[in-house]
Specification:
Blueprint (H helix, E strand, L loop, with lengths): L2 E4 L5 E4 L8 H10 L24 E3 L9 E2 L2 E2 L1 E3 L4 H15 L21 H11 L7 E6 L6 H14 L4 E5 H9 L10 H9 L3 E5 L8 H16 L5 E6 L8 H7 L14 H6 L2
Parallel strand pairs: 7-10, 8-9, 9-10
Antiparallel strand pairs: 1-2, 3-6, 4-5
Helix pairs in contact: 3-4
Length: 280
């Protein structure tokens, strides 16, 4: 088809259009800088990665009649299962920032643990809970005198799960409470709810040196609530509690949790490896 236009005298004149070559990179940069305003996605014809959420990452929560449920005056939504891998990585990165392990302790592995006839059952119980084929889950309470390997087993479990991509964290009870308490400081960069959610959602949580000696009511309340939440998720996440105190020395609520039939309380013997290693 010929192209024409009128000149200044009013006559029609013909012209040949000139092709202009524009680099592809420049075209793409213009598209990114000034996307189409029609509201249509450039990738609308491409299949989405998830048929449930269409790539949005969230799902609407509906009632039994199929209507959108509301919460606090806002539509209630939930995370799509397709985002579990991405969420796990995000939580793992944040937990690493509050982890109580040193660089050297992050290298500790189950192979380093000195297995004896007395502690073999306890060792195997922690390994089984950590390396479960589905995912780490369960509730393990390690109690006994100092030096029998409670701390090392807890570190091994956290490091092993973390090496397989699970969000895991090791903290002493004191550090855990200090971390939550710091959220009320004027210069806190995260809220209490955010810190609380981070700990409760960890795939593996190891709390070492649990003690209620001189603990204030606020601390006891936080520990009872945290352990209660973790206990109810016993099939989805692993919680390891290490303490030098007898189980019945805690509050009735904690003692009840620790004594439950679903909680593993392995025997680690009485050999103090610290003294044993120091012998010539």
């Amino acid at each position: 088809m010929q192209n024409s236009a009128r000149n200044t005298s009013g006559k029609l004149t013909h012209y040949e259009p000139q092709s202009v070559r524009v680099p592809l990179e420049k075209v793409l940069s213009r598209i990114k800088a000034d996307p189409p305003q029609s509201g249509l996605s450039l990738h609308r014809d491409l299949p989405t990665t998830c048929p449930e959420c269409a790539g949005m990452g969230w799902l609407a929560v509906v009632n039994e009649y199929g209507f959108q449920r509301m919460k606090d005056g806002k539509p209630e939504i939930r995370r799509c299962p397709c985002q579990s891998g991405a969420d796990e990585k995000l939580i793992a990165a944040r937990l690493r920032n509050i982890d109580g392990l040193t660089d050297a302790e992050r290298q500790v592995e189950f192979l380093w643990f000195n297995v004896t006839p007395d502690n073999r059952d306890g060792f195997q119980a922690v390994v089984a809970a950590t390396q479960d084929m589905r995912r780490p889950h369960g509730f393990v309470v390690l109690s006994g005198p100092p030096g029998i390997g409670k701390t090392m087993l807890s570190m091994c479990a956290v490091n092993d799960a973390r090496s397989r991509g699970y969000a895991s964290v090791y903290m002493t009870a004191k550090d855990l409470l200090d971390h939550l308490r710091a959220s009320i400081a004027p210069d806190a960069n995260t809220t209490y709810d955010a810190r609380w959610e981070l700990i409760t959602k960890a795939s593996v949580l190891a709390i070492d040196e649990l003690s209620l000696t001189a603990a204030k009511p606020w601390a006891i309340e936080q520990l009872e609530e945290l352990i209660g939440i973790r206990y109810r998720r016993i099939g989805d996440m692993l919680t390891i509690i290490a303490t030098n105190h007898p189980i019945d020395s805690f509050t009735p609520k904690l003692t009840s949790r620790f004594s439950d039939r679903l909680v593993v309380r392995p025997n680690l013997g009485t050999l103090d490896f610290r003294k044993w290693r120091s012998q010539p």
